[in-house]
Amino acid sequence: MAFKMAAHTDKGIPLSALNPNYLHSNSTSHTWPFSAIAELIDNAYDPDVNAKQFWIDKTMIKGHDCLTFMDNGAGMDYDKMHKMLSFGFTDKRTVKGHVPVGMYGNGFKSGSMRLGKDAIVFSKKADTMCVGLLSQTYLEQIKAQHIAVPIAMFRCTGQTISCPVSEHAASLEDILHYSLFNTTEELLCELDAIKGPCSTNSAGTRIIIWNLRKSSSGQEEFDYSTNRYDIRIPADIYESTRKQYKKQEHVMQSGPESDFSLRAYCSVLYLKPKMQIIIRGQKVRTELISKSLACSFKDKYKPQIPNIKPITITFGFNTKSKDQYGIMMYHKNRLIKAYERVTCQLKANKIGVRVIGVLECNFLTPTHNKQDFDYTDEYRKTMCSLNTKLEEYWKEVNHRFRKNTDIPLTIPKEPDQNWVQCDDCQKWRKLPDGIDTKKLPSKWFCRMNPDPLFRSCEVPEEPEDSDDEQVYQKTHKQHEREEKMKQAQREQEQKNAEQQRMKKLTALTRQNKDLKRKLKQEKLETCRVKLVRQTGMKFKDLTRDRQKTLRSAEEQDYKTQGEMEQLRRELDELKKEKAQAWVEKKAESQDSSTGEGARSELGTSSFVEVDDELACRVDFLLRDLDQRTKQEEELQNRLKHLEEQNSVLLTRCKNLQKDLEVKRECENVKLNVDDKGSQTDCPHPNRDEGGIATGGPSVPGSVPQDGTRRGPESESGQGDSATQACRLMLQELRHNVGRLLVNYVPALDLEQVNFDCDVIDELLMQVLEIASSPLATEHNS
């Protein structure tokens, strides 16, 4: 069949057409199935429909699993249904502050075709009822080149329902032939299910989708058996396809329940819910997410866009789950990104755990599937600012409520406020503190409100916090400033203490260097003492060997000089013989020429031989003389070294001799004092031969007969103290001399020596004699 364009303009210009394949291509924008369902919910929520309830259910029609969606809103007439089934037509406007979510005129087509291949729409409005078909199966079977949408309209007049045959007969025929409903009665029955039979007061829309999409393994995309009041994504499908969903931030963590539970997702779908959602016969318990937080504070964010007022951000702790936290980002009251974690919540330091931030960012542009925002520069700045403000909130909460830094912050289990929605008027009412909303009945009405001021549906809704509300006071910043000042003061004190410590350390280092220098000197002194000790032990042998070496060198030198003298004498004799031979040769020159030539040759040859032998001997003797001269120089050097050592030893011996003389003088003083004492003990004229006094006092210090008193006690005390001092000095000197003598007499055991006798003195004299006699001999030589 040749391809034919659908229509042309009045000038004959062809209009653009849509191929049926576009229905599937358009639906692929929804990678997450719940986003497709949200498109259908948005259509009922928008102000042009303004439904109060929205029902979602699963049913089976003629062996086909079907999803049904129904609302009790304004309904659609023929023209509006035609626009809804077409692409890009939208005339939604804000009504009484109710801002529409839809903006592209594509939500129903992309959402319904994402859930299944075929969809039929029933709608009632005033006295008209319309049925429209959007079916990929229908277009495939008729081999359509363009997207066709059969629409049939019924009119109600009392209890009579009529259908204009001329206008909608073909559409009705195709609907009955290619849909699940093959008779007009079946269509009317579905229209009656919207809300009773034909009535001027009933209105609404009912959508039935069949040929539901399945996974690649043939498994159904939804799980209806785990919870009979919920529609869930099976665990295996969710785990295998979560990377394909728009929630990339939940790939590496446990996803929130709203990712796989339609009931949980619908409970937070709107920032301030105005419509009840009933899933499989049970109402969804919607909540004001910004009012269901604990320890909540409000903050402000000013977008860098002209004419945009500051945006209110509510921070608080999630009281239901510790794993569900992040930023809830809404656009025109509709949830776009749920539990979007900012940078500080992605780190391993537990900052921002369980913290939820809620804001309505109408200044950003959502994507077509309304599950993300366009990644613009303003979006990046917003996320960065949210991260900063969440960190400030975390610090403030810890500063206010965390008394002990060693104990984790205790999160309240109940929210700061309790709000509930009336099932009749859909108004939200604030409940007094202490009421557990979980124990409220499934249907709650304003007349049940404990607060008498808001106990009627006629009373306006209680106002929420105004936008002019002041931002919470960030006391942690003042605390941080004080802490910084204290920290700076502590650092200054530490710096001063460090300077003092460095000064002390410098002084200690200087002392340490001095001690090391002293220790080094002591070590050198110890080494010198050891060297002296070792030198003293072998002094006699070295002196003896040196004398022998000197004697042998002198003898060898004397012998060499004698040989040289003998060689000189022999040389003189040879010279004399040579001269005599020359004279004889000249005397015999008068002889014949023949005899003369022969004697001349003979004398010359013998003289040459004598000169060569003499030169060799002289050269040998000169070399031997040089070698002996070198040996003599070496011996002279050794002699000088030994003389230096000898001088050191002599100096020490002189010092010891001086000390000994001092000790002897002290000993003489002691002896003199003892002599004086002995004189006082000699026989007294008044004593008898037995030493007993015959008359007069004999006790020192007594008074004689002449009346004068003498002082022998004081004189004796002075002599005793001087004697004791000299004795101690002598013992100390002998101790020092004994420690020195050990270097020369290793067998000397100081522990066995009695320092009160003259043993040390005698040993010192012997050592001095041994040390001085060879040195004196060497010096004289």
Give a structural overview:
This protein is α+β, with helices and mostly antiparallel strands. It has 16 helices and 16 strands. The chain has helices at 21-27, 33-45, 78-85, 107-115, 136-141, 165-178, 184-195, 235-241, 262-267, 343-346, 377-401, 475-537, 539-587, 593-680, 712-744, 759-780, and strands spanning 53-61, 64-71, 116-125, 128-135, 151-157, 160-162, 204-212, 276-279, 282-283, 293-301, 311-318, 326-331, 334-340, 355-360, 418-421, 428-431. The strands form 3 sheets. Strands 6-5-4-3-7-2-1-8-9 form a 9-stranded mixed beta sheet, sandwiched between helices. The chain has a 5-stranded mixed beta sheet with strand order 10-11-14-12-13, with helices on one face. Strands 15-16 form a two-stranded antiparallel sheet. A hairpin with a 2-residue loop joins strand 5 (151-157) and strand 6. The N and C termini lie far apart (148 Å).
